[in-house]
Amino acid sequence: RTINFDNTHIDNLEVVLYHSDNPYTPFSKWSFKPNEKGFLSQNEKINISEDWGIKIKYNGTESDIFFIGDVCYLYNGAFYTDAIKLRFPDSWSKEDLQSLSNIYNEIATYRSTHKINSLSVEFTNNLTEDVSLGFFNRDNPGFADKSWVIKSGEKKNLCCFTNDWGVRADILRGKQKSTHSKMFVVGNIATVNSAYIFSSADLFPSTQSVPKN
Fold it and tell me: Which of 39-48, 157-166, 171-180 shows the lowest per-residue confidence on average (mean pLDDT)?
């Protein structure tokens, strides 16, 4: 498979790949400017597997070396990852990476069957905890583009999103994120009435309230 990298870091960085047959010597390196993304290639795209290694170097420091299969998600037959997943690998589980593969495909399906429109969002938090509500750009659902803290019982109007964006909520306990919902396509969960209207019950359909610890 090929691999696409997105530099979601604020500085220039270097991506280093390691071949599985020679894990102690860099296979090749690529430089990325902030917000730059693209496939790693040497005249042509490189065909790699999950047991290859990858790390990033930035500001005089570097990440650990990770297996491709542990920090990438799959979309359209290619691996995708970004600077956030390599800087903070503990923030993304295998299940999270699989959900990114799923949401990419859901977004593609939604786009092919629906008209895309931009409206404000009306969100109500019916949970007993505050939540961090994150919206994920339809072209990069691996990284939250915008997020807000919505207090327990609060209704909030947010502007503006198209119906093919991804959305996810993290339940906050203190300042820490604990349980999070799966990621949904906005248009698949929202009621439309001059705004995209949905609530915590749509993101956590199994419960209206989460007990406090």
Answer: 171-180
| Three-state DSSP class for residue 179 | strand
Q: Against a cut of 0.70, is the pTM above it?
A: no
**Distance (Å) of CA 19 to CA 45, 67, 142:** 15, 10, 25
Q: What is the dihedral of CA 66, 70, 73, 79, to 10 degrees?
A: 40
Instruction: Return the sign of the alpha-carbon dihedral for residues 109, 113, 117, 119.
Output: negative
- Is the separation of the CB atoms in 177 and 132 below 8 Å? yes
6 dihedral zone (left: phi>0; alpha: psi -120 to 50; beta) = beta
CB 133 within 8 A of CB 180: no
Q: Side chain identity at 208, as an amino acid letter?
A: Q
Cα 39 from chain centroid? 18
Q: Under a CB-based contact definition with an 8 Å cutoff, are residues 103 and 75 in contact?
A: no
Residues in the chain, total: 213
Q: How far is CA 161 from CA 60, 74, 114, 122, 166, in A?
A: 37, 25, 15, 11, 10
**Confidence at residue 17, expressed as pLDDT on a 0 to 100 scale:** 96
The DSSP code for 65 is: P
Q: In this structure, what token pair is assigned to residue 41?
A: 């290639």
